[in-house]
Amino acid sequence: MSAPATPETGRTPLLSVRDLRVRFTRDGRTTTAVDEVAFDVAPGQNVALVGESGSGKSVTSLAVMGLLPARGVEVSGSVTYDGRDLLGMRPRELERLRGPEIAMVFQDPMTSLNPVVTVGTQLDEVLKRHFDLSRRERRERCADLLARVGIPDPVRRLKEYPHQLSGGMRQRVLIAIALACEPRLLIADEPTTALDVTIQAQVLDVLAELVAGSSTALLLITHDLGVVAGVCDEVNVMYAGRIVEQAPRRPLFAAPAHPYTDGLLGSIPRLDTPRGAPLVPIPGSPTQTLPWADACAFAPRCPRVEDDCRAGAPRLEARGEGRDVRCFHPLVPTATRKDLR
Amino acid sequence: MSIAESLEKADGLDDGGVNLWRGAWRRLRRSPTAWLGAVIVGAFLLVALAAPLLTSYEPASTQWAGQVGTSNVPGPSEDHVLGLDRFGSDLWTQLVYGARTSLLYGVISTLIGLVAGATLGAVAGGFATVGGRIGGVVDSALMRLVDIMLSVPSLLLAVSVAAVLGQSGTAIVIAIGVAQVPVFARLLRSSMLSQGQADYVLAANALGLRRSRIVMSHLLPNSVGPTIVQATLNLATAIIEVAALSYLGLGAPDPAIAEWGRMLVAAQDRFDEAPRLAVLPGVAIAVTALGFTLLGESLRESLDPRSRR
């Protein structure tokens, strides 16, 4: 397979994932959830992992964090963080890395906070674990963190329990907790999916603002390309466990090359969509896939499918403009683009 | 108001555990059920502790045996508020000292079961949820041990313990306590396992918190609720079991120790002429058990932050 595009800045990547494969074994049957996944996150860069449910994006993030259960899961390939191999790391070392180096915001704010412990304590214990601060300094820092994520009256909120906060507030708290140690990499797994649409925008703004105002790199996992457009520099589109298109934001949104990316973009409303024009859904469901081993998994749902799509697996190939596409019949053929130039 | 200023005003950020229990206490005080349970339990504690002040007679003193006839047990009189029992002892004195025995045996045996069971359960549950690869092995080993304990019927266990230690109060307490261990161990472990699946445990892991911290401050506080209810409910059953084992003659052989279970045995063949001999200790056992049950139930409710009214 081809190496993924190096970020245009040429910086050494902070996180580098190569050939990542995750297989689950249950009752003797093995399922490959993620395969041949490779991407980089440079320091301070915002990278998106986009795909439908079941495309393997969350599994990828959990594999990077080393949070997949030990039993029945087989992870291979390499995950390198700041020159260190994460997959081979001892649990104790990994624990020290989580928090101050890599932190994570989870999808569901209703269940990701401990219900019987106050918000303040949950913030405080992270600081206590990773920093040598006095009780008083930690307390001020906690209140300051809540203020930074836009929670009014933070000192009072510190003493409240999660059930006393709204969903949007809780997600803000989770963001505050994740950013408490000023990590160099923040992984946000569908951070706005569980929230109301109006709150989604607010929380996303808070997240984007905090990430932009610091040196923290962001790996944003989402199914919503609309969310990606405002925040990310690099986009990885996943389908059935593999990356099908990898491109910088601008070329990807201007002219998607993979029919799946095109389908995702066609299914969300845009300002330049003519009034009354229907949105185009991708036909079928993500369960209708062919095994990647000998075909293109997207073939059953692809509008551009041809016979060769069912005969062999396409490989991720460079198509110019820092773009890699896994498709035999991409929407913007290389030749055409060369002509345009 | 700056953050520093408002921090001055705030009366401090306590540890989650402290806050949890303080909140529970606040809610407990507002619950009528808890009050009823507490009043019953409190009354029995008082009776048990102050037994010598509540009666002027010695327990099991048979000095009035002459007044008990073959077909007649003297009822309440000026000297004896509740009358005599079939051996010629003062019934009120027997009941009062019986409370002392029941509560003492019940509490000690439940404490044995709770401490041993919860420790086993917490270790097994902790290893199973955050122990990684070796965690499952430790968990299985501990739980098989618990299964073996569970496979021995508690009555048989009590008889065996009594056989080893001799017929005594200690034997009863250990037998009942040991029989409770599997219940607590399994209960705490299973609630820890279900809490281990919770997102906040994953989130705590993602923040690099120590595994001991995750167990102590996240898993345990969310899991102890059912175990505490069970302990209070077990107090009720332990009191009944103490009576049952005494009824079977496995208790302290010393007749000077008043015991509700033995009072029931003694009352059996005189039930027709003096039903109070069976009814009163029976009611005492039932009401005590009810008191602990009510208290346990309201404790569970108050410990659940979502049940805040």
UniProtKB/TrEMBL annotation, chain A:
Main localization category: membrane
UniProt KW Oxidoreductase keyword: no
SUPFAM superfamilies associated with the record: P-loop containing nucleoside triphosphate hydrolases (SSF52540)
Recorded topology in the membrane: Peripheral membrane protein
Gene3D superfamilies registered for this protein in UniProt: P-loop containing nucleotide triphosphate hydrolases
UniProt cross-references to CDD domains, sorted A to Z: ABC_NikE_OppD_transporters (cd03257)
Keywords on record: ATP-binding, Cell membrane, Membrane, Nucleotide-binding, Transport
Alphabetized Pfam families for the sequence: ABC_tran (PF00005), oligo_HPY (PF08352)
Gene Ontology molecular function terms on file: ATP binding
Protein name (record): ABC transporter ATP-binding protein
TrEMBL record, chain B:
Keyword NAD: no
Topological relation to the membrane, as annotated: Multi-pass membrane protein
Entry keyword Transport: yes
Keywords, alphabetical: Cell membrane, Membrane, Transmembrane, Transmembrane helix, Transport
SUPFAM superfamilies noted in UniProt: MetI-like
ABC transmembrane type-1 domain sequence ranges: 99-296
Transmembrane regions: 34-54, 103-130, 142-165, 171-188, 277-296
Annotated compartments: Cell membrane
InterPro entries: BP-dependent_transpt_permease (IPR050366), MetI-like (IPR000515), MetI-like_sf (IPR035906), OppC_N (IPR025966)
Pfam hit, one: BPD_transp_1
Family as reported in the entry's similarity comment: Belongs to the binding-protein-dependent transport system permease family.
Protein name in UniProt: ABC transporter permease
The species this protein was found in: Nocardioides imazamoxiresistens
Taxonomic placement: Bacteria, Bacillati, Actinomycetota, Actinomycetes, Propionibacteriales
